[in-house]
Amino acid sequence: MGSDGKIYKNNVILIIIFILFAELIDWVTSFYFSIKEVNSYLIDISVTLIFMVFVIGLFRGMKNTADELQDNKKRLKSIFDTLDVAIWSHDLKTNTLLITSGIEKLYGYSSEEFYKDNTLWKKVIHPEDHHVLAERETGLSRGEAVTSVYRIIRPNGEVRWIQDRGIPVLDDNGNFVDFTSVLFDITNRQESEGRYRSLVEMSPDLIAVYSRGKLDYINEAGCKLFKAENPNDLIGKPIADLIPAEVLAHIKNRELTIDENFEEKLWFEFKASQVDGKEIDVEMSAMPILYEGRMAEQIVGRDLTQRKKAEKTIKYMAYYDVLTGLPNRNMVRKHLNAALKNGDQELAVLFLDLDRFKIINDTKGHRVGDLLLKVVASRLKNAVRDTGLVSRQGGDEFIILLKGLSKEEVIEVAERILGEFSDGIVVESQEFFVTPSIGISMAPYDGQDEETLIKHADTAMYLAKERGKNNYQFYTDQLHGLSSRKMELENGLRKALEQGQLMLHYQPQVNLETGKIIGVEALVRWQHPEKGIISPGEFISLAEETGLIVPLGKWVLEKASAQNKAWQDKGCSPIPISVNISVRQLQEDRFVDTVKQILADTRLDPRYLDLEITESVMQNSEKTAMTLTQLKELGVTLAIDDFGTGYSSLSLLKHLPIDKIKIDKSFVDDIIHHANQGAMVKTIIDMGHNLQFDVIAEGVEEQEQVAFLMANGCMIGQGYHFSRPLPLEAMENLLLNNSEHKGILR
Ligand code: C2E
Ligand code: MG
Ligand code: MG
Question: Does the C-beta of 582 come closer than 6 Å to ligand 1?
């Protein structure tokens, strides 16, 4: 609508007709009288008659036209009244305003209200849409027809969308002479359009339309994808600036044949150009549409950068170890396979496992463990240089693949690796000593396929572990059959527990001065039906890994306690029995209860049960301290096993209810070989005594060591020098003869 009024055209037409009619009468009258003046009566009569006929005819015609007009007017009015359209017409010359009754339906106000206040239409416009008026005014003042869309608020508060087409008529001086406005209610259309528009606008995917090589429309997501500030930066631009020509050609020429690959054919993956020229991975699909009356292509697409990145990561993770950045097991296997297929001669597979890593990981936490592994990875790379591929298998296991090296050269690499670990690794200002055990298999002698070579290197690695760790071993045929031991072990161990294949051996702990047995350590053995006796070194860590240690450890506790009680019942002088307890067992919530129950069941006096725990549990939380205290309260004694190999300090032990420490065999060994280490043992003994712990030396093999220990105040020893771990009967015999006087163990 417009404020400047409207015209009632039919009135104008009638006025014009009347003016013409008046002119005609004037002219006919003057003609008639001039003839009369000159002339004949006859002519006069005939002319009068002709004129009469003419006038009558004319009047009849006039009457018909006026009636028709009246009818048309009525019909038009009824049409307008029934339409959901309102017309507002203002003849500004005569200031005649005409509003069709449709306005009432549209606005909810009566026609009278509009006639009374011809600015009412403006007042009901939604405040947010007032800006439309200014744009509208500008167009109209130029004499252009303007279509505006705005919301109005009805008297009942209802909001409707109105499309208003204003048609101005200007005179030569540019003044409004006439104004007509046609108004529609487009609420329904607007709402559904709005829904679609917001779907398109808000879509996280790019949606764009292009025709004749230029971009016609692009949504927000599209702007973002191409890094444009707003759609206007892109609209009108050649689509070829954004999408490569070959893709556009493909879109143009594609055959939209419907087959099973139809979906795939619709999507293209390519690199699109952003406005700054940067290329990004995108995926798009295109389909022809009719847009603003012409054929266009609508494209839908999305940024693939993240997905590509994820794909890369997944690929990376499939072939690389995320922690160390080293190739992983898949990669090394791939390489090994390729090399074998290639017929590469002289392939060596080094299977490397870190000694004692598990302890560090358990006690210092995974973070320290991870940092340590990173250092290990770089040391390994250092040692191997460019002679091979270093990979991490998982945990503390690494596989190194060496190509084209002779056995001697492989040895050199293995030596270099060991050399790399002679210095401790400092992590978070603590120094850790980790060493590797390395097993080596060589193609084609030790295997011709990837599986066998790795399995054999693994087997050789176990041999290295058995041979004191921190060394390398080549696979030999004698090792054959040991390989799948780990898996076999796990299954076998379960069976062993169920079928009673476990048994205990006992090793005496001896008073160095008197030679009297003052304790025994229970050491588990696995009596394998085919393989014979298997030592705990081979299955304890596996039992720990799998959790089997919990039932296994419980069995040992029961058995040892019952046995000790049985010896006492047989008249042996009562001595404590030492049982090894794994960290994993201690962490069990019910551990204290288990011990308590066993003591009750076996009726063993708690002071004759000694629990050996490794130093590694020491750093573990307050919870461990509490467990130890509870155990102490039961009346059992506590010993720290393998003392010196863990990472706790003596001062830490001070706060724990510990009774004794067992100096690790490695220190005891060095008494003879290195004067230095002897000093270490001495220090440990002194400090232990200061803290009022009993001190036991483990792995005593030589008389010399006994002398040194005694000279330095350590009065208890355990080791082959006195006795190897013994089966039940042998131990029992010793115990039955156990007296200070006999001193059989010296
Ligand atoms: P450990 O508790 O330090 O036990 C001492 C180990 O050193 C025993 O090995 C023993 O046979 C060996 N040994 C003793 N004296 C000498 C010696 O003079 N020279 C040498 N070369 N070795 C000596 P074993 O019985 O093979 O046990 C190895 C480890 O297995 C034990 O070390 C202990 O940590 C673990 N273990 C044994 N039985 C159990 C058990 O029932 N439960 C748990 N959790 N661990 C156990
Ligand atoms: Mg022990
Ligand atoms: Mg020990």
Answer: yes
Which residue minimizes the CA distance to atom 7 of ligand 1? Answer: 699
Q: Running DSSP on this structure, what letter comes out for residue 740?
A: T
Answer yes or no: same fold for 203-303 and 309-481. no
Mention every residue, 6+ apart, whose C-beta is less than 8 A from residue 421. Answer: 379, 434, 435, 436, 470
Closest CA to 222 of 211, 231, 213, 210: 231
Question: Ligand 1 pocket test: which of 497, 509, 540 has the largest number of ligand atoms within 8 Å of its C-beta?
Answer: 540
Domain boundaries, the chain: 3-185, 203-303, 309-481, 507-739
Task: Tell which atom from ligand 1 comes closest to the C-alpha of 556.
Answer: 41
Q: Is the CB of 537 under 6 A from ligand 1?
A: yes
508 CB within 6 A, ligand 1 = no
User: Measured between alpha carbons, how far is 213 from 271 in angstroms, rounded to an integer?
Assistant: 19
Asked if residue 705 has its Cβ within 6 Å of ligand 1, the reply is no
CA distances from 719 to 331, 364, 726 (A): 46, 30, 12
Domain spanning 507-739 has what CATH number? 3.20.20.450
Q: How far does residue 551's CA lie from ligand 3's centre (Å)?
A: 21
Name the one residue in this structure whose structure tokens are 């995974």. Answer: 366
Pocket probe mutation, ligand 1, options 502, 506, 509, 523, max atoms within 8 Å of Cβ = 523
Q: What is the pLDDT of residues 150-194, one digit of tens each?
A: 999 999 999 999 999 999 988 888 888 888 999 988 888 878 877
How far is the C-alpha of 498 from the C-alpha of 152, rounded, in Å? 86
Q: Is the pTM of this model over 0.70?
A: no
How far apart CA 631 and CA 624 sit, in angstroms, is 10
- Tokens 């009246």 locate to 70
Cβ atoms of residues 467 and 459 within 8 Å: no
Q: What is the 3-state secondary structure (H, E, C) of 145-184?
A: CEEEEEEEECCCCCEEEEEEEEEEEECCCCCEEEEEEEEE
> Which CATH code is given to the segment(s) 203-303?
3.30.450.20
Coil, strand or helix at 728: helix
| Cα 698 to middle of ligand 2, angstroms | 9
Write down the pLDDT at residue 244.
93
Instruction: Assess whether the C-beta atom of 556 lies below 6 angstroms from ligand 1.
Output: yes
How far does the centroid of ligand 3 lie from the alpha carbon of residue 662, in Å?
7
Dist. CA 119–CA 230, nearest whole Å:
37
CA angle (117, 91, 152) in 5-degree steps: 40
- Report how far ligand 1's centroid is from the alpha carbon of 523 (Å): 6
From the candidate CATH numbers 3.40.50.880, 2.30.40.10, 3.40.50.620, 3.30.70.270, the one assigned to the domain spanning 309-481: 3.30.70.270
Please give the number of the atom of ligand 1 that sits closest to the Cα of 701.
18
Q: Which of 422, 414, 348, 351 is nearest to 383 (CA)?
A: 414
Q: What is the CATH number of domain 3-185?
A: 3.30.450.20
**Residue nearest (by alpha carbon) to ligand 1 atom 11:** 725
pLDDT digits (tens, 9 = 90+) for 352-388: 999 888 778 877 877 889 899 999 999 999 999 888 9
Q: Is the CB of 466 under 6 A from ligand 1?
A: no
